[in-house]
Write a structure and sequence with these properties.
single chain, alpha+beta, six-stranded mixed β-sheet, 3 helices, 15 strands, 16% helix, elongated
Length: 188
C-alpha cells in the first residue's frame, strides 16, 4: 500500500501568496489525506523516509505549513492535510538576542527555520526536567500551540544572563522579558 504524498507545488503557492509570513493555517479545514513518513528529530533535523532533508529552503517551506491539532502534527494547505511525526518540539531555537523594548529587556529567540519569537505575555518560556536524568529541557511558545526547544548553548547563554531572586522561599535564576519574569531553575 502506498503512502499519501504532499503536493509541494500547492505548498509553494501558499507560501508565495503569504510572502515571508505564515499562511492562515487556522482558517483552513482540508480533508485528512493520511500520514507520510516524515519526522522532525529532537535536534531539529527533518527526515523524509529516513533520509535527512538537506535543503534549508525545503525545511523552511514545510515549517510554514506545520500545524498542531489535538496533539498531532500535520503539514497543511487549503486542499490537503498529512500527518507527520515530531520527536519532541517542531522548532529548535539556536539563537537568542536581547534588545531594549518599551517594558525593559526583550529576549528574542530565532529558530533553525527562521522563526523569531519574543517571550513575554504572548509567548512563554518554561523549563521541564527529565524525570530520568534531571536534565533541563527549556521551551518557548512559537505559534498555533507549537513549541520550540532551546538549543543547549542558548540555554547556557540565558543562565549567564539570568539574575538570582527569591520566589516562594526558593532561590531561583530568572530572566525578564517584556516585563514578564521567567524562571530558569533553582540555584543549587
Amino acid at each position: 500500500m502506498s503512502q499519501p504524498g504532499f503536493d509541494l507545488s500547492e505548498a509553494s503557492k501558499v507560501i508565495e501568496k503569504s510572502g515571508e509570513g505564515i499562511p492562515p493555517l487556522d482558517k483552513w479545514n482540508p480533508d485528512f489525506c493520511g500520514d507520510i513518513d516524515m519526522c522532525i528529530a529532537r535536534d531539529g533535523k527533518w527526515f523524509y523516509q529516513g533520509t535527512i532533508i538537506s535543503r534549508p529552503a525545503m525545511v523552511k517551506l514545510f515549517s510554514k505549513v506545520l500545524w498542531l491539532e489535538e496533539g498531532k502534527y500535520f503539514l497543511k494547505t487549503p486542499v490537503e492535510k498529512v500527518g507527520i511525526e515530531v520527536e519532541d518540539a517542531p522548532f529548535l531555537m539556536t539563537e537568542v538576542q536581547v534588545q531594549e523594548g518599551e517594558n525593559g529587556p526583550e529576549y528574542q529567540f530565532v529558530s533553525t527555520t527562521g522563526d523569531k519569537v519574543v517571550i513575554g505575555k504572548e509567548h512563554s518560556l518554561w523549563v521541564e526536567e527529565c524525570s530520568e536524568t534531571s536534565e533541563p529541557s527549556p521551551y518557548v511558545d512559537v505559534r498555533f500551540g507549537m513549541k520550540g526547544l532551546l538549543h543547549r548553548n542558548v540555554f547556557y547563554e540565558l543562565v549567564e544572563l539570568a539574575i538570582e531572586r527569591e520566589i516562594d522561599n526558593k532561590q531561583v535564576l530568572v530572566i525578564e522579558s517584556q516585563g514578564v519574569t521567567f524562571i530558569l531553575g533553582e540555584v543549587s
